[in-house]
Amino acid sequence: MTVRTREELPRILKEAFYIARTGRPGPVVVDVPKVIQQALGPDEYPKEVNIRGYKPNESVHMGQIKKAVSMLKKAKRPLFLIGGGVNISGANAEMKELAERTGVPVITTIMGKGAIPTSHELYMGNIGIHGSYAANHAVAECDVLFSIGTRFNDRITGKIEEFAKDAKIIHIDVDAASISKNIVVDIPIVADAKLAIEKLLDEVPKLEIQAWTEQVRGWKKEHPITMENYEGLTPEKIIRYINEHFERPIITTDVGQNQLWATQYIELEGNRQFLTSGGLGTMGYGFPAAIGAKLGNPDTPVIAISGDGGMQMNIQELATAVTLELPLILVVLNNGYLGNVRQWQELFYGKRYSSTCLRYRRSCERRCQDSREACPPYTPDFVKLAESYDAYGIRISKPEELKEAFDYALSHKNAPTIIECLIEPEANVFPMVPTGNTLGDMILG
Prior knowledge:
Blueprint: H1 9-21, H2 34-38, H3 62-74, E1 78-82, H4 84-88, H5 92-102, E2 106-108, E3 123-126, H6 133-141, E4 144-148, H7 154-157, E5 168-173, E6 187-190, H8 193-201, H9 210-222, H10 235-245, E7 250-253, H11 257-265, E8 274-275, H12 286-296, E9 302-307, H13 308-311, H14 317-323, E10 329-334, H15 339-348, H16 382-388, E11 392-396, H17 402-410, E12 417-422
Parallel strand pairs: 1-2, 1-4, 2-3, 4-5, 5-6, 7-8, 7-9, 9-10, 10-12, 11-12
Helix pairs in contact: 5-8, 6-9, 10-11
C-alpha cells in the first residue's frame, strides 16, 4: 500500500492494521514516501474500515457444520488435527472443551502445539516428518480426520497420495484458498477457528470411541519420543528442566534441530507461549523473537532455544538486548555442527559431511569427522562473546550443571545470559520421515 497524499495517511494506516489482524493474519507493507513523511496534515483517524474487495469471513455456514457433525457421529476412529489457526484465533479453551466433549484424540502441527494442554490425556503429539509415532500412525488409521486451522503443508503430510487415504476429511480454515489446495477434503468450512468451534460445541455429542482412543494412547506409551540412548547432557534433559522449573514461560526457538527438539519436548498449557517460525526455515529468528516477547511481557520469563549456528545469525542483537536491559535466557545447544543438515548428510549421504562442521579449518583433513578429538577448538567462545557485549555467559556439559546455570541466569536482572550447552555432536532428531515417504515410514532411531 503506497501513501500518495498526506490526506490518505490515516486511512491507509487504519486499513493496514485491519488487514494485518483479520482473516489470516500477516504482515502488510505500507510505503510512505519521504515527501509524505515531511508533510503536515490532519490527525483524524477513521473509526470505520471499508476496503473494496477485502471482506474477511465473519460467519459460519451452519449447513456445513451440521454435515461435519453428522460425519463425526458416524466415525469409529475420528481424529482432530489442529494447526496454528486455533492458537491465532485464541480458541484454546474452546478446543479443549471440544476434545473433552467428544472424547476424540488430538494431534497438532508444530504451529498448533499448545492448542490444548500438552499434558492432556487426549493429546497424542505432533504430526509430520519429526512427529510422534502415535500421531503419524493415527493419521494412517483414522476414518475421519477433522482438521482445524492448518494448511496441510509438506512438513505434515509426507507422501500426499498416501496421507489419510482411508479417511474422510473435514477442514476448517479462515482462508478459502488453503482448503483443498494440497489435500482434497470432503467437507470444507471457511470460518475463523474460534467461531467454528463455538458452533460445533452447540451440536456435538459424546462419542462412543473409547477403544480407539485407548489404542492411540497405547501407541503413545509404547513409542515415546526420547533421547535415552544418548549419554550426558541432551536437549531432552535441558528442555525437561525448563518444563519442571518454569511456570508458563514464553519459549522461542531458532531453526534446525533445536527447533525440532523444542517442539517435541516442551510442555505448553495455553496459546502464545511458544514462538517459532514453523517451516519457513528462518535461522536467526529465535533471539529477536525473544527480545520482542520480553518487551511485550516484561514480567514473564522468556527463554530462547537456539543452535550454535542459528545463534550467530543475529548475534549483534545482544547489543540491543543489553541496551534495553532485558534479562533474557538464551540457551545455545552447541553440537559444533549445522545439525539438521548434518543429520541428513549422515543418514542419506554416507556421512559425507560438507559445510556443516563449525570447527572446520582450512588445514583439516577432508574427513575430519572421523576423529573429533583432533578437531580444532570451537569458534566463537560464546561465554567471552556474551561478556564482550556486557552480557553474561556460562558453559555447561553435564545434566547436574543445569540448576547452577539457570540459577545464574535468573540472578541477572539487567542483561541477557547465554547458557552454552555442549551436547553430543552427532545427536539426531527422531522419529524422522524421509522425504517422499509416507508418515508410516518413520525412522525411529
